[in-house]
Amino acid sequence: MDFSYDRRTLELRERLEEFMDRHVYPAEPVLAAQLADPARPRWEIPPVVADLRVEARKQGLWNLFLPGEHGAGLTNLQYAPLAEITGRSPHLAPPALNCAAPDTGNMELLAEFGTAEQRERWLEPLLDARIRSAFAMTEPEVASSDAANIATRIVRDGDEYVVDGRKWYISGAMNPDCRLLIVMGKTDPAAEPHRQQSMVLVPREAPGVTVRRGMTVFGYDDADHGGHAEVTFEDVRVPAGNLIGEEGAGFAIAQARLGPGRIHHCMRAIGIAERALELTCRRVLDRTAFGGPLADQGVIQDWIAESRVRIEQLRLLVLKTAWLMDTVGNRGAHTEIQAIKIATPRTVEWILDKAVQAHGAAGVSQDTPLAALWAFNRTIRIADGPDEVHKRSLARRELRRHR
Amino acid sequence: MDFSYDRRTLELRERLEEFMDRHVYPAEPVLAAQLADPARPRWEIPPVVADLRVEARKQGLWNLFLPGEHGAGLTNLQYAPLAEITGRSPHLAPPALNCAAPDTGNMELLAEFGTAEQRERWLEPLLDARIRSAFAMTEPEVASSDAANIATRIVRDGDEYVVDGRKWYISGAMNPDCRLLIVMGKTDPAAEPHRQQSMVLVPREAPGVTVRRGMTVFGYDDADHGGHAEVTFEDVRVPAGNLIGEEGAGFAIAQARLGPGRIHHCMRAIGIAERALELTCRRVLDRTAFGGPLADQGVIQDWIAESRVRIEQLRLLVLKTAWLMDTVGNRGAHTEIQAIKIATPRTVEWILDKAVQAHGAAGVSQDTPLAALWAFNRTIRIADGPDEVHKRSLARRELRRHR
Amino acid sequence: MDFSYDRRTLELRERLEEFMDRHVYPAEPVLAAQLADPARPRWEIPPVVADLRVEARKQGLWNLFLPGEHGAGLTNLQYAPLAEITGRSPHLAPPALNCAAPDTGNMELLAEFGTAEQRERWLEPLLDARIRSAFAMTEPEVASSDAANIATRIVRDGDEYVVDGRKWYISGAMNPDCRLLIVMGKTDPAAEPHRQQSMVLVPREAPGVTVRRGMTVFGYDDADHGGHAEVTFEDVRVPAGNLIGEEGAGFAIAQARLGPGRIHHCMRAIGIAERALELTCRRVLDRTAFGGPLADQGVIQDWIAESRVRIEQLRLLVLKTAWLMDTVGNRGAHTEIQAIKIATPRTVEWILDKAVQAHGAAGVSQDTPLAALWAFNRTIRIADGPDEVHKRSLARRELRRHR
Amino acid sequence: MDFSYDRRTLELRERLEEFMDRHVYPAEPVLAAQLADPARPRWEIPPVVADLRVEARKQGLWNLFLPGEHGAGLTNLQYAPLAEITGRSPHLAPPALNCAAPDTGNMELLAEFGTAEQRERWLEPLLDARIRSAFAMTEPEVASSDAANIATRIVRDGDEYVVDGRKWYISGAMNPDCRLLIVMGKTDPAAEPHRQQSMVLVPREAPGVTVRRGMTVFGYDDADHGGHAEVTFEDVRVPAGNLIGEEGAGFAIAQARLGPGRIHHCMRAIGIAERALELTCRRVLDRTAFGGPLADQGVIQDWIAESRVRIEQLRLLVLKTAWLMDTVGNRGAHTEIQAIKIATPRTVEWILDKAVQAHGAAGVSQDTPLAALWAFNRTIRIADGPDEVHKRSLARRELRRHR
User: Fold this and answer.
1) ipTM
2) Whole-model pTM?
3) A164, D91, D233, D377: least surrounded by Cβ within 10 Å?
4) Which residues of A touch C297 (CB under 8 A)?
């Protein structure tokens, strides 16, 4: 277990921190102003993001998330501390670096499972940030944590696949630049449970695709990163060549996509926690009540100490998981990936809750990033399998060792 | 300690439940549709509320919160179970019955401390719901939990008071029907800490009053009940007769206002918790994953049992507090009022969190009331004194018994 | 819901508090000295208990727990505040008043289900505290929370029942004065699950009964109240007339016995919590560190406030349950009895944990009652059905309302 | 950050695991039998420990804790996984390897700060396990977490120091083999707070030393490892050469002693947690209730998953701390040492609590190690500075970064 940062990581970290200081943090109030402008087309990505992208690319801070020839070629352990830094400004830094979900997962998926043709048509413009994409798995009508519940059908009809179904919380899909939907559905409901699903590439403009509305997350529409769409697919036809991998491989591909996605989320979430703790420390040093700074109050000191102790433990678990993924592969790191999926959002939620409390009314407002970060982080306890599903699975593996 | 519901309470409860079933619950989707209509003037109260008011008044379900001659004359113990019922649909039922904060607290204040003239000008239209009002205490620049921090100045100048300051989270003040701001500020910064503050009535249209923006609560602007305004007061002049009570009495009046306000919040919050638990039960009976209804999963049963056990304890504490307020007065019930202020929001938060989790993506969305209720409830841990201030005060009283 | 204390309760409470002050609290160091005496026969009840019994009886503070003609005839609501007071010195006050488990439950059982002959032989000396008794249900080999698991056999053989099995944690049975074991076993393993069990009265001196050892509870042997015995029954023969009720009624009788037993435990546990909080307050006012009394530290104030808020809620739930048992019967109060069984031990555990922490090393030692109370209270989360079983049952009932 | 185990660690780990399997685990029931023997002199170390020592020494598993020439010369990172393994049987393995507190800390102290003469007289027999020692810091009369409170006086009188004071919870000192007490007291109450204390070596047989009684820990007297003594020092005279270091250095030496002591505790505690989790898994696979093994119940699976996730995070933090101590020294690892002191006992407590609950009555009994481990682990939240003191200190350091 060697978590040391190598030379390349240290060099990139320095460059990234400078980029944050010079470009990203100063852009935060610009983003807020652009979002508050009532004249802005609601679902377009605010222009400040495009400006940052130009700058990031110039600095060589681009596609850092993507291993292999298509991206920066970093290992998980190299990427981890960089992702954490971007998490400190999660609305701006990840998209600025072309390292934001769901495009990251979709690019990984295309890079790993896409045909040459699929990669040329979709992966290249995504790598260039010329288009955006979405991943359509969750459905409103069923408990989507169980893949066997998926109701969307993908039926082969000659040279085409026909897609019918209803999806929601399709993040990014409200953004008019989102051109591609990767859709999960059932091609063979009679197969064994994990061979029923397949994945197809559906252009957003395909007839039968209707983006119906933006779903909200604790009141936020997340318009700055493409919202979360409810989308219906009615007799949508795509060429057979739009299938990813083979029929019946949908579940396996989804699992493969989720491993790196989960760890990226967790890395960034640690950055969120560090930012929250920093804001809290500054706030309580600054504000005074009942005869002294809030920082002198024992209960607030308790929050700060707890936050630090929890962050340290969390970061180490994420680093170990990254190291394991690099050394034994995603499958070998399965337990650890579940562990960080369980541990991260709740730890960060606790820290954000205390940060909100320490900020008083400002903490729930639009004047600090805390409430929006809380809402975003809260969804991670549900998204991509609720905690309870992961804990059950992890427990069963633990029990198996003692049978 | 007798918490039995008397005949009048039972009769009102029956009438109110019928009103909920026939009018309020069916109005919930109507409210959602009206709020989602982009053509609607953003800060106006949706028309469905006015319709409900007409009906509620017809049913004699009006101003139930207000003791004494001006209102329904109920005791706290009589009002408690009724307020709980309104909490089941907290965006509609309390305003429908003219029992919603902050107007309730303001009406109590005017009824108790207002002059005949003040009552005639402001209390009567409020009792009729012809106008709305707001209470301006919290300030963005200071830790407002300590009244000694208040920076707004109220300076006597001849026959007038001159108000200068900045307030925020002035709930209801975005609503154009809000005509009155009750403003807390310092008249004598040199007096002893709790005699420095005074309260004046400021018409919203007074020159120098600027309603600057709506503050958000975890992404919600709460436009359906008048939002939460940031308001500046620059050289605002009101007649000396607009003072409430006497100079220096502001802190004491605020405290008097807060007791009933707190218990009303807590009563309604129990209704919120009951609603959340009911929605959870229905959901988990309905949804299936991994071979059975979610309701069969041990962890979910644990949440349900915990929710029930916590609600029961909470309701009893609120009822005892109501009974104490009725029998020994608000001052005698001080410890208990603090106890429910501490215990209620966090208990309800826990229950809402589990309800969200059991609902998956729907739980954070606009399609169930859970996320909005969570956000509202979360603010109660901050509003009107954060938990930490109340706990410190309660602990000191406990310690005093053993000195 | 009327929890007011009536005249009789108030009168008994006053008398009991005087008894505590004059006799019980001063006896605590006497008990400690008697227990520490290496010459004392290990399992005999320390003589100070007998002395207190004489005094309690003289004061009319005797058998307060027992409703009906055989006891004091109090309702649950009348007994609740008295039991709470005895909980403040739980090693001395309950036995002093002949109100200690397991004799209380056994006396209730004999009073309700015993024949005249059984009552004469066993109930009368128990009511007089001339003998002690034990209740033998839990078994070491099985998960005893599921009555279907009971392995002990009770087989009819002519005019006798033959008992074979192994029981443990038979509280009180190490005490040589314990003359009676009420044994639960299966008479008909082929019957439906809740009709398989029966109960018989087994004199401790019956051939084949072997009291093997005292089980410990976190290091305590609880020798002062008869310990917790492991007992084997090998071909033990008792007359057929020793059956309680009828064959197959064992489960139902056990359930009937447990309702009042649970609420008595909970009532006393609140007394434990109050005592712990009182000791904590005194300690933190007295001890100084880092420039001031511990009582000035925010975290400790937080514990104190939390303790008070939690105790208040808990007591109300127990009172409501007592009132329900009195008005609608134990069966009608089933949910509430489970609720207090769930809520009480964990709440009291939390309070005791903080009390221990506030006392430092003294908190875990024999010099304060805290550690022993913690250990005793911890067992209540397991005894008489672990929390998890009760929560599951309570959740199912809640869910049933929404089917 | 490289936590990899090197060749030496791997080789020692293998040897230690074999020693555990062949000698230690089989000795656990032997220890239990020897402790239960009423004929055994109460405070002598059970003979099975001596037998194990012989074997451990033969295997080269001796004094592994001690860096430098006097011991095995392992780094903290090398020792960490070994200490964890010994924690799996914490009553036997650490003393078997001569790696048990408080002797370890005392040997470190003598190795680092002792004169040649002190080392010859005391360190050598300790390294050989011919004698045992104790560390006398905590006092019953004051909050010992604040070193400024220490009341014991050490007064220079000619060629001697005169010691007067009362100490308690002097672990190991009930053991007749304990020959040495390292005593902390004040030599100069007028000096600045952290220069008032000194440390002297006091032979247990020195006139004026009275070992008064064994203190208990949740009912356990811990006789198997020398108990916890209350000791008084009345006009105890030792030669001036018995001073450790210089006058006024007591606080600094104590701090130096505590760093490694804390991490050793934490390493072993992780072994305790692993053992508890293993016992739980086996138990719930074995026991059946309500139609299936306990292992199938969702709540129990939740405990198992949580335990695993928490252990992983904890171990990484301890390893990082060990690595830091090795690379930047104990002072540079100060924050991390506090963090593990805060995080470890509570995490292990949670896991033990669930293990107890999963075991039912057996969990609180003498038939599983769980209750005794719980009690021991609980004291770590108090010993060597309560959590609250460490959190306050850690928070202040965190805040300092943002001033």
Assistant:
1) 0.97
2) 0.97
3) A164
4) 298
